[in-house]
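Work Package 3 (structural annotation) set out to generate three-dimensional models for the target panel prioritized at the project kickoff. During this period the team completed the workflow that converts sequence records into discrete structure tokens, so that structures can be stored uniformly alongside our sequence database. As a representative example, we reproduce one entry of 66 residues exactly as it appears in the project archive.
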Amino acid sequence: MAHTLDHTAASAGVLNRIWNAIVTMGENSARAQTVRMLNTVSDDQLDAMGVTRAQMVQRALLAGEM
């Protein structure tokens, strides 16, 4: 029985590391970086550009840039 529990714990550890790697890749993707950058733009700056935050995000994600 102990062998089964050790095997299950080891499997959970491997799956956890795989999941963390996937999350890290997503957080470091170009799109995630673009969204983080857009979050630093103030509402006043967006008003000066004549766009809403939703429009800016849509443009950035569709074009792959800002």
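Residues 2-27 form the longest helix (26 residues).
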